[in-house]
Design brief:
There is one protein chain. By secondary structure, the chain is an alpha+beta fold. It has two domains: 2-44, no CATH class; 102-260, Glutaredoxin (3-Layer(aba) Sandwich). Helix content is 66%, strand content 8%. It is built from eleven helices and four strands. The chain has helices at residues 2-18, 24-33, 35-44, 46-81, 113-129, 148-161, 163-176, 178-195, 200-206, 210-225, 247-260; strands at 102-108, 133-139, 233-236, 239-242. The chain has a four-stranded mixed β-sheet. Strand 3 and strand 4 form a beta hairpin.
Length: 261
């Protein structure tokens, strides 16, 4: 009761001084100087307080999502006008026709579960668009995935032998799943390489070579330059998709590129 009377008195004083309703700043100062007023109100109406807080949180989340969507739309528009330009050497393994009008560059980690989801989506994209799409698999092995770097080395060593064998290894690892890579280590990678038809003695020699090391380091550096800090990340004719986006998001970007062509 005492706190209520203090609040009524304070509000009356404010109204008298200003000859109108108290301003937001005045109310803020009043509550700041007398926080017990707020505490008392919450104690008397706990459920109402929770409802108000939840409603405010939902509103804030909705506004944040809207701002994020607007920022993402703006970024993509800028990239359609000024696409990112990854370096693709002629020696890199390419999945699909080399003259395909759509180039998807993927920055990935063989031990990442989200990259397995990305693998399934890219597979769906290739099935849907056929010879209109080619994919270049690049590497962004994350520090907390200890088998990701060795798997990347295996892949590039196999790619030196054959692009088709590299793709078979790539597909076999992702089909088996990141958990298998984490549990089996070298034995698992050897099994997947043999399944792809790789020359194992040449693979073991090449995987620790400077050539393989330089390819992976260049991929990682390029990924960071384009703002990819997690995996998977994609460039679709230079327009970036950061994360394991579903097929419709790829379709939206690809169709726009094809319509433009």
């Amino acid at each position: 009761m005492r706190n209520t009377m203090r609040l009524i008195f304070a509000l009356t004083a404010l109204a008298f001084i200003s000859a109108c309703a108290p301003s937001a700043k005045q109310m803020e100062k009043l509550v700041a100087d007398n926080p017990e007023i707020l505490f008392t109100a919450i104690e008397k109406n706990p459920q109402k307080f929770i409802d108000v807080v939840n409603a405010a949180a939902k509103s804030a989340q909705s506004q944040a999502r809207q701002k994020q969507a607007e920022a993402e739309e703006k970024r993509m528009e800028e990239e359609f006008s000024n696409p990112k330009t990854p370096e693709i050497q002629a020696s890199r393994a390419v999945f699909g026709p080399k003259d395909a009008p759509i180039t998807i560059v993927e920055y990935s980690d063989f031990q990442c579960p989200y990259c397995q989801r990305g693998y399934n989506t890219v597979k769906e994209v290739m099935e849907a668009y056929g010879d209109k799409v080619k994919v270049v698999y690049k590497h962004l092995p994350l520090d907390f995935h200890p088998e990701a770097m060795p798997a990347a080395q295996y892949y590039e060593a196999i790619a030196m032998q054959s692009a088709s064998k590299a793709k078979k290894f790539h597909d076999a690892v992702f089909e088996a799943g990141p958990k298998m890579l984490g549990s089996g280590k070298t034995a698992f990678l050897d099994k997947m390489a043999k399944k792809a038809g790789a020359n194992m003695s040449k693979l073991k020699k090449d995987m620790d070579s400077a050539a393989v090391k330089n390819i992976i380091e260049a991929d990682m550096s390029e990924a960071r330059k384009f703002g990819f800090s997690g995996t998977p990340g994609f460039l679709v004719n230079g327009v970036s998709l950061k994360g394991a986006y579903p097929f419709p998001e790829f379709k939206k970007v690809i169709d726009r590129h094809l319509d433009k062509k």
